[in-house]
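Notebook entry, structure prediction.
Reason for the run: the old model in the group folder had no record of what sequence produced it. Starting over properly, with the input documented here first.
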Amino acid sequence: MTITERHALEALRDPALNSAADGHVGGDYESDRYGEMVLDGTEALDVSHAGGEFQELTRGLLGDFWNSTSEGARGKCPDYRTFRDRSTKQMAAFSVQMGAMAEAYMVWSFKHRGTGGKGFFDSDESCDGEDTKLLTVLVLDVFRAEKTSVTVAPTDCYLTSALVRHGLIPCSPITPKAAVTVHALHLYHTARQHCPHLSIQGYVKSLCDMHGVPFHNHRSRQFSIALDVYLQVLAFISNLVHRAVQRDQPDWRLKHSCPPCTYKLQDEPEMRFAMLFAQDGNDSLKRVATRILDGDIDHVTASPPTSECTFHHKQYLTREFVDKFASERQTGHSIIDEDSDGNLCAERWKNMKDNATQKMWNVFDESGVFIAVCRHGFCLLIADMVQSGKQSKYALAVTSKLLDAFGSDLGGGYDIGCRFKTTLATSELGERARSLNYTSLVNAFHGHAHNRLCQLDNLTTYVEGLGLEDLEGCERAFSKSNALASSTRYASIFHRRQAITCYFEHNDEMEVYANLTKFLLNNYKQALDTLSNGRATLDRLMGELGVTDPATFKIWLDEERVYLKSLMREPPEETLQMEYWQRLVSLAASRQDLETILSTWTIVTAQNVAPICSDSSATRKRETACRHAQENYEKDLKAVQELEGRLGITRRWVPEDEEWQAAARLVANRKYQCALDNVERLVVSRIFELSKMNQSGTGYKLRKHIGKALQTRSAAIRAALTQYNTAAKALGRRTLEFDEVVEYAFLSDFDLLRDTWQDVSTRLWASPAARLAINTYFKLCRAEEEVVRLNVEIRRVVTYLVDEDRYLRACEALYQDANPALAYQISRYRTIRSQFTPLHLRSLEKISRLSGFNGMLTPGVSVSRGMGDSAGIPKRVCMDAVLSSPLVATDDGEDDADEDADENHTTTLEERCEVLQNILSVTMDS
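New structure, fully documented this time:
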């Protein structure tokens, strides 16, 4: 019984109340005693299994009074708005106030600089004047949560900006009743970038445990709203800072994302590739379509969701831009046409065929991401793969964007770079790519699974100017970003993109940039080790092979290329001869069957006479078999006669003829090739399953599944080896053992078994020693190129460290007097990368002490000195149109000391670079 029902029945006891309700009492309940009897229990009230009798009783007693009180007890009118409607209106309300909130945040940040991260409840917040008002909100901090009154000054445009001025991010745009401190949001945001598995609910539950209060679901929703607002405030301030330092031009971030790749200096040596990058797709970051979660599976379409426009980021390529490269040939049909293209790697890579990747389960909207990273690991571009696999349009869109940004002499690694080279050449982008000297490359790991002929043209070991770069940066990036999958699988489009961009931004600044000079140091060590050890090995191998000129290895590689091309197709005449031989064999077999049936007689005696019906059935079966044998013979005879006419054969071959025996050998060779293809296919699958077993992030169930697949694969390899060895023995070829095959590290070893017309082992370049010498020679060439590239990149980094620090400090000084809060944000922007300068200087010092280092550590002169460039001259930008009001900040008298510290810091940085150069000079002199 509800409270309203109880009150209605109590009215039956009180005559006064009862008389007031007499006008509304029904005829069935006219007696006041009936209500008392019901309440006393003396009279039973019939209650059905469905219930509702008390409700009907009170409704009949009180009439309209019941309706008014029950409606009031039930609460507000029904809310028919969807979650998307509420979110959209909420974000729109926050967007209107975003400028004021950003200004308030900058004032708060400047006021609390140097406080050592003191919590909200530990700081002293005082009223700003007599006209201030108080606003009571529930404040959620890291170690404490309670209701607190905060001041609202007359200068505060909104309640939200008033809260932000105290370091609080509101959870509602109009009447905030709860707020989260900036420290709590910053802690979660930072922790999540290092551990993407950390969810909002898990973090809020942890805070509730520390606060000693029970967890409620609405707390997670409030924290999520506050986090979105906090990140939008940071993005707004970031745009302000970029505008103040003149770095708000289109694609500025892309063109300056990696200092070693993009910060070019004067008088640099020429390199074949101005920039190296890798591109690839990954299907871990799928997102389940919202319409599937809502149960509307019947209306699944490929149209982009309307809420995509709610999130924009400079790294992301829009769906409209990507779809411009989806021609009818690439989306409606396979991009592989084996008859016309002849790509030998087509059967090894399923993502070479768009008809196998253009569709994705309808349950997913975004089926993954397609990214491009430079050789140092900086993420350049991101594109969503929408309801498809790795189609060519994503690689074309990325390539087009990079050509626009960086121009000529780019080298792009892709696991199917051999096929993408053809796709790019035949696309609308082909002519432009050729004019800009774009080169499509194949990654090192994936390259060893390509056909040997493809390897000779695209493998990183044989590509001139590539150095020791493996172009596997995407795989390393995906191995870490896969941790985002659990938190983005059921997220909205907005939050999925937000999580992905925040992760890659944080990874670029805090991981990749922090380890930049360590990367250069390790690569320099690898190049020097390769040169020192490889030269001794190459000299020994050249002595064993009797080779005096290293240019011989290039000649051998060209000979291998010509040799493998000769094995690509069978001569048409030989193909017809093999078919003719097989038809002759079939004709002989059908003739033998026919003669056997015709020569078979059934002798009927008195002892084996059967019933007439049974004898008739057997006769019909024999007649049918005879007719079938006659038809098969005539069919085979007709096929033989047709081939004799095409080959111009006047006398039919017999087994004793030399032509018969030659064709039989050709057929045996074909069986050998097919058996070898089967073994190679199984070994390819085994290699990739083994690599997947050791991949970080592979779950237990998947590892068990792969383990079982490997056992099955091993049995299949043994069976295929048996067939291969049978075919090899028929030709007198070398047989293979299981232990030998599973140890093949390079699939090119299979290609050397394919020549059945001549023994390839008689060629000089086919011997194991010669192949080791060839690979050693080309690795030495690549190591020398790597040293040249590293010397260029090291000096670029040194120059960038000096120029960037000087430029940003000059920008900070421009706004120090008129807008100190903005100047402080510029200093924080500078600190993002300058905090790692000591690490870089230590790594540079280690590089200078390497035996064999022949580069320079003195800063050079940048070729880019335009607006916003590190080597340019900063100019003050008018920010009045962006900021609604001048930012007010207190001056604590530390400006002079800060300026002195800035000047000393710049001088110290230049002096340390000069010290490194002196160390280098002493090292080389000794």
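Summary: Strands lie at 133-140, 145-152, 168-170, 178-181, 275-282, 316-317, 366-374, 379-386, 410-414, 439-442.
The old model has been moved to the deprecated folder.
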